[in-house]
Amino acid sequence: MVSALKCRSKAIMPLFLLVIIALLNSSSVEARIRRYKWDVKTEYKSPDCFRKVVITINGRTPGPTIRAQQHDTIIVEVTNNLFTENLAIHWHGIRQIGTPWFDGTEGVTQCPVSPGTTFTYRFVVDRPGTYLYHAHYGMQREGGLYGSIIVGLPDGESEPFTYDYDRNIILNDWYHDTTTDHAVGLSSVPFRWIGEPQSLLIHGRGRFNCSSLAVPNSDPGLCNASSSDCSPYRMIVVPGKTYRLRISSMTSLSALSFQIQGHNLTVVEADGHFVEPFVVQNLFIYSGETYSVLVTADQDPTRNYWITSNIVSRPAPNTPPGLGVFVYYPNHLRRSPPTTPPAAPVWNNTLPRMEQSRAIKARQGYIITPPPVSDRVIVLLNTQNEIDGRRRWSVNNVSFTHPKTPYLIALKENLTGAFDQNPPPNGYDDVNYDIRVVQPNKNATWSNGIYRLDFNTTVDIILQNANTMNPNNSETHPWHLHGHDFWVLGYGEGKFDKFNDPGKYNLANPIMKNTVPVHPYGWTALRFRADNPGAWAFHCHIESHFFMGMGVVFAQGIEKVGKLPSSIMGCGQTQGLYRP
Fold this sequence. Notes:
Blueprint: H1 2-6, H2 15-25, E1 33-45, E2 52-57, E3 66-69, E4 73-81, E5 89-92, E6 118-124, E7 129-135, E8 146-152, E9 165-174, H3 179-187, E10 199-202, E11 233-237, E12 242-249, E13 255-260, E14 265-270, E15 273-280, E16 283-285, E17 290-296, E18 305-312, E19 322-328, H4 350-359, E20 376-387, E21 390-395, E22 398-400, H5 407-412, E23 445-447, E24 451-452, E25 458-464, E26 477-481, E27 486-493, E28 512-513, E29 515-518, E30 522-529, E31 534-540, H6 543-547, E32 551-556
Parallel strand pairs: 1-4, 3-8, 9-12, 11-19, 20-25, 22-23, 24-32
Antiparallel strand pairs: 1-2, 4-6, 5-7, 7-8, 9-10, 12-17, 13-16, 13-18, 14-15, 14-17, 18-19, 20-21, 25-30, 26-29, 26-31, 27-28, 27-30, 31-32
Protein name: L-ascorbate oxidase
EC number: 1.10.3.3
Enzyme class: oxidoreductase
């Protein structure tokens, strides 16, 4: 597979053809079918000791980990038992080559799964790495519907680094209000902000201070510090052994730092691609990102150590750190570390976060060289606006709204009335727009128009950050692209200079990712090939930001998309076409 991918630097071929050729030429591949049967429902859980309604898969949050090998077929039969809510599940980082209808994005690739019905996703995991799955309907991800996808190399192949054991951790932030409360508040006039999270979870476990509840509650079970649901996450390690720790972020709002007290973390993988190794003490991670780090249990084995997560890029003084324990065997599981948790990074110090972003480069021997030039450049200005009295997030002053008929179906079936046929702007007035002040943006509007990309062309995306509607405030936005990986060509501070900054792009060894941050008052430059037929969302991975309109859709090669399964239909102009 690596050799097939490397040929992209010599001759550009459509992605879906490359994968088919690689599969046909690989006689050693013994692909398996991995079947899962999931029951999605709401239950009372107390992941941070505070009881609330959460969304579970087979009674669990995080949900079951999908484990497979490269080229395996994954079949997930999902039954929606949420009673009153629709459902869609996105397979984050899986490119869905040949199966764009199973990307799991409501309004883009499928109609949602109605309560009481069952939907079957079927797709191939075409490359190894650390990936995610999560709800992609409304704000359900925030309610607990998420989990990991771990794809290993085929038998007989190995990574370019060694370790003794493989572990997986998902980081998250956690609210006590329901997702419905948040959706109503964000859509209200006047606007009601959801605030900062009450807790940080390390693999589904956190600890809220029950004594801090503003109003005493007569229900003694509402917040129970002795609940087994909120006992700290503990990772048992053997002295002297090295662990591959797959760290993912499913936060709904927060950027995080992650550290293991007294231990170095060597970064070796990002979003499924091997990284030229570098060492950190704090790993900065943004919603939707995945990393693999190597950590060796090489400290004093007579004690245990803290695992911590902390919020960065936002002031969150009332959100306590996420805490877990790095347990040296044979120490007792419940033995707390003898020292206080390590100090958190300064939340508004952008410099070390920018330095880490720039340090992530493709590993020597695994570099996929990008095309030297692009065919099209799209600049996406990230703004916050008031539109018809409602607070919205926008791109080039256009706030995204979902159509009633999913784009993939509308495009394939030529349903031209299903969405606005006028494309969004390719940029903004970069000469006169001041990104460092609150702008009135009186031309801000709503739209469900899309970008149509010529198939197999090279596209540059410039993510440009700006001030919000609050003075002296610019937020970090992690952007995620469905159906593709992109080359990260560079980061910068201030306004992107279209004449000089492209000359500074890293074209030698850029990392490929599917999720990337744009830092406050900064820019991030990406390049990708429009070589995967379908309609694909590209959006801020902060749950409230996408809900409020911070996203776009790219369509490409629709004529090459196969016959759509009727199971994805049943909404909008496809009512009556649904077949289970």
